[in-house]
Amino acid sequence: MAGVSVALLAAAFGFAGLGVASAGALVPAGVGVLVLAVGLFRASRRAVTVGATALFLGVLYAGARGGATEPILLGALGTVVSWDAAEYAIGVGEQLGRGADTTRLTLVHSATTLAVGVVGTAVAYSVSLSVGGGQPVAALVLLLLGVVALVATLRGGADDGGSNRTRR
Amino acid sequence: MRTRSLVAGVGVAAVLGGLAALAGFVVPGLSATFVFVTIVGIVAGVQGLRYALGRRNVDYRSTDTGDPELRYRVPTPGDDVDRRLVGAGGWRRTGASNLRTRIREVAIESLVLHDNCSPEAAEEHVEAGTWTDDPVAARYLGADVPLSWVTRLSLVVRGESSTPARVSRTVAAVEAIHDGDDSVTERRRERGRDSAADTVGEGRP
Amino acid sequence: MRDIETNRWTGIEGAALIAGAAGVVLQQPSLLLVAGVGVAYTAYAWLSDAPDPRLDVERTLSETTPDTEEEVRVTVTVTNAGTTLTDLRLIDGVPPALEVTDGSARLGTALRPGKSATFSYSVEAVRGEHVWEPLRAVVRSPSAEREHSETVASTEETTLRCAPSLEATSDLPLRGLTTQYTGRVATDVAGDGLEFYSTREYRRGDPLNRIDWNRRARTGEMATLEFREERAATVVLVVDARRESYVAGEAGGQNAVERSVDAATRAFSSLLDSGDRVGVTALSPRECWLAPATGADHRTRARELFAANPALAPTPSDEPYYPIVALRRLRRRLPSDAQVLFFSPLADDLAVTAARRLDAYGHLVTVVSPDPTTGDTTGHRLARVERRNRLARLRRAGLRVVDWGERPLATELARAGRRWSR
């Protein structure tokens, strides 16, 4: 139950952040929060993913409309934390059932996820503040290109390792 | 493997270069032309979309923890029959004929034990279909009793022409041997004498 | 033992790249920051491994030798003897024959090194010796992307031992059955018994309930009633505990072997109380033999046997069973004048064969058959008809059969006794 509260609370924060950033983003974000809540109570991973995707579309929309940076980051954090908590709660429900005490497990997990997001945001934010003159756009493009290449190689590695281990 | 190392090398170099440029160093040959920006953006977007869509048909894995808190489940007699009826839709040939043989034996034995037939007489009854009032049950155990097209059609319409439905009716007919106070075969024989005239001409449709 | 990719973070890298691409193309720094957060989460998902747990498990029972149907509280304490576990799920190995009635045998928690977590639940005791299986521990990486599962045995084996009570006076009306047995010969000796035999002059010390009060009222004379003394019978209780007999009408309910052993337990004390020599054995791949005898020591031994003999366990064994060999050995063991009470659900034809074989060896066989069949599906109905035929076959062969359905065994026995005495 703790997981459900965390998920809904994070989704509400994300929704609020997106609302501040851009009023238009409230439409996909609102749909996202609703679908995510339904997914939680139906224990449907698919619905939770769809809801989180709608929230993410809200983030993209707010960003594209040039909304303020801080509320958009809040929206992104809320999206990931609520999706993570919701999916986690469903998984824990499957493995441990309704009767078991899972409060500590759920809270520690969501706290960790939140902490990772906060640290990531802080690092990205401070980098963006410290960027000097020179060629910022070109630098970012180069960075993105590098990330694409790295993700492609890491994904390949993860896929191979994963399939070897799990297809028993 | 070689391409992957190459891509990884390019990736690391690009990330380092990007970070250096962000920090204020001038990287030679780097310029943010519109075309370059758009191409990198599209490549990244397409790759990202591909990865994100990969979630649509991912299978979530986790350890199955079972139900240790429930009692050990023992079967109920007859579970094997139900499994066979549901599982193969009743159409696996050998399974179906094994089941038929089994029900046939039960029917014969029921007649012997509850209707005071001799084993031979019981077998004849089953052979001729005179052991039951239900033509579907009689036919299922191999008797050549007539079944009109109207009846057949209505069975199909009501969805009772499938093997499970026929087996169910046959079992019900066998149960009737047990439940009836008076002898099923006796009753049939008397009724058969009365209506012999009607059935003779009809034959098998 | 093995690691699993849960795949729960699949697609997060895609979201990061989409945000980055949109940020670059649309020249929006905020989306690039979102992409940065996405990269952080991607690293979180990919770069952490499920730790190898080192756990100490301690399990205590509120009562290790409870009576049947008593609630036993189980308390499990798990101590982390290794690294920090941020995601730890514990599933206790409750013995198969026990059911959790209160609380949950599972816990989800996070444990720092040296710390411990405790959870407790209740089980309802059923007859038998129950050993807890190792606890299953599932740990995940902090992001929960990787999962690792293994079993951890407790430091000491946990055993629950529940013996049936043989002390309470049993209410089974077996007398109606056994008086007709050949072994229970009505003698021409006056003494203790049931059937009136004669009266004699009152002597000091005669029990009050044996005084002929009618005559006292009529004539004022004191006289003592005497009954026909009966010779004790030798009865061997044979429980059909083959794998095929572990069947039940409802999932999770008492299975036929449990009901059989329950009935045998009560029959044992009933027969022993009436002075018969009683033995116990089982048709099972495992060894089970208690030679017929009487006395308090014998009662204790039987209680031990009913509680802990693996052949009579509430769950079947996987060992192979050779019915012909087993029957031959049973025949050698049975005293020639022994009567047999055969407890079997008659779930297959071999049970009928066994009963008839024992009958053919010259033993008087009475079959007590707990009914495991139901009528809810076609297959179950077919099995019910087959079982009814087996009962009829045995009755036709001259064996006495008690079909024990939902009603108490005492009622069924009384009904059957009336039918046989007619």
TrEMBL record, chain A:
Q: Which Pfam families match?
A: DUF7519
Q: Which UniProt keywords apply?
A: Membrane, Transmembrane, Transmembrane helix
Name the residues that span the membrane: 105-125, 137-158
> Domain of life, per the record?
Archaea
Membrane in keyword set:
yes
Q: Does this entry carry the keyword Membrane?
A: yes
What is this protein identified as? Uncharacterized protein
Q: Which organism is it from?
A: Halogeometricum pallidum JCM 14848
Automatic annotation (TrEMBL), chain B:
Keywords per UniProt: Membrane, Transmembrane, Transmembrane helix
Map out region (Disordered) in residue numbers: 179-205
Write out the transmembrane intervals: 30-53
Q: Which InterPro entries match?
A: DUF7269 (IPR055693)
- The protein depicted here goes by the name Uncharacterized protein
Biological source species: Halogeometricum pallidum JCM 14848
From TrEMBL, chain C:
One Pfam annotation reads: DUF58
Q: Which residues form the DUF58 domain?
A: 199-358
Entry superkingdom: Archaea
Q: What is this protein called?
A: DUF58 domain-containing protein
Species of origin reads Halogeometricum pallidum JCM 14848
